[in-house]
Amino acid sequence: MKRIWVTLMIAITACSAHAKRVTCKHFATQAEAQAYMEKYKAYHLDGDHDGEACECLPGGSSHGLARCRR
Questions:
Q1: What backbone phi and psi angles, to 5 degrees, belong to 27?
Q2: Where does the record place the Excalibur calcium-binding domain (predicted)?
C-alpha cells in the first residue's frame, strides 16, 4: 500500500510540474523572462544555455532576427 501511495504522489507531482511549466510566451519582454529565470531557476527558458532567457522577446539580443520568426 505504501508503494502505491508513493508512486501516486510522484505521478501527481510530475503532472503538476508539467502543467505549470512557464514558457517565453508567458512574458512580454526578455527582462521579465530573465528575472523569472533567475528567481525560480527556470533554466529551460535559456534554450541555447548562454545565460540569456527568451532572447527573441523584445529587449533580447536576438529580437527581430530571422531565427526568432517561427
A1: -120, 150
A2: 20-55
Amino acid at 19: A
24 closest CA partner among 46, 5, 4, 7: 46
Domain ranges of the chain: 22-70
Contact 10, 16 (CB under 8 A): no
Place of cell 527573441: 56
pLDDT tens for 10-60 read 766 655 555 589 999 999 999 999 999 999 999 999 999 999 999 999 999
Provide the residue type at 25 as one letter: K
Helix (H, G, I), strand (E, B) or coil at 8: helix
**How far is it, in rounded angstroms, from Cα 68 to Cα 70?**
6
How far, in Å, CA of 39 to CA of 43, rounded?
10
